[in-house]
Structures are given as C-alpha cells and as structure tokens.
Amino acid sequence: MYDAYDLDLGAAWPRLWLTVPDAVRAELLAAREAYGAAFGLAGWAAPYLLLGAWWWPALPAAVVVAATAWIRGRAATAVFADLVEATVDLHAITLAQELGLTGERPILTREIGGRATALRGGRTAGSRPAGGAGR
Predict the structure, then answer these.
(1) Quick check: 95 and 105 in contact, CB under 8 A?
(2) Which of 1, 37, 115, 116 is the Cys-Cys partner for 9 at CB 3.0 to 4.6 Å?
C-alpha cells in the first residue's frame, strides 16, 4: 500500500476501519477468523507429534494436521491480504475525504473543536483542560 499510495497502512488502518461499510468489515472479519482457525489447527500438530514419540500411528496424523493447517493458512492469508488491499483501493479515498484532505470537507480546527465542545456543555471555547492536558 505504501508503494501504490504512499499510505502507511499501519497508521491509517484504525481510521480506515471506521469508514468502511459493515459488509466490508464482515468480510474482513470472516477472512481473519479463517486465518485464526488455520493457526489453531496448526497447534494441534504438536500434541500429535508428542504422542507420536510413544505411539507411532500419531506421527502420520501430526503430518496430515500440519499439512492441512499449512494449506488452509496460506489460502486464508491470501484471501485476507486481497481483501485488505481491495479495502484500501476502494475506501481509502473515503478516509481522505472524511479527514478533509481532498478539499471536499472542512477540516476540524482548534476553533471549531472548541466551539463544538462548548455546545456539548464542556469547557468554554478557548479554555484549556486542567494541567494543560489534551495536546
């Protein structure tokens, strides 16, 4: 994503996540869960391998479980990576618009933020929180 858009996905992802539609989130979560399930399956290979030290029929089971987890993990990783890339391709511009970077939406300034705080019954516009916090 950095090469294509100069976008640091690690920094942008939390904000991008909040701008994508629920259907996109559901697809991303399903792909991430498939990845986690493959990782969980891989964890079962170790007990079978340990059992194989005393009972040889467990060794082929360990190999089959590990191979299945590897195949499923690679497939799940590819799907998840494609979905993340598609999410950025299709929705990063929405993030830029929401942040006011495209000129199509006003940017939140200190003045506007102070006025919004005052409207909500917070501190008065222009006053600072105790101890100068909030910077």
Answers:
(1) no
(2) 1
Single out the residue of 115, 108, 43 nearest to residue 73, CA to CA.
43
Q: Which of 95, 100, 104, 134 is nearest to 117 (CA)?
A: 134
Most distant CA atoms of the chain, gap in Å: 75
Q: Residue 90 carries which side chain, given as an amino acid letter?
A: L
Closest CA to 59 of 50, 67, 72, 69: 50
User: Half-sphere exposure (CA, 13 Å, Cβ side) for 46?
Assistant: 5
Question: Does residue 133 carry a pLDDT above 70?
Answer: no
H or E element, residue 3 = helix 2-5
d(CA 125, CA 109): 12
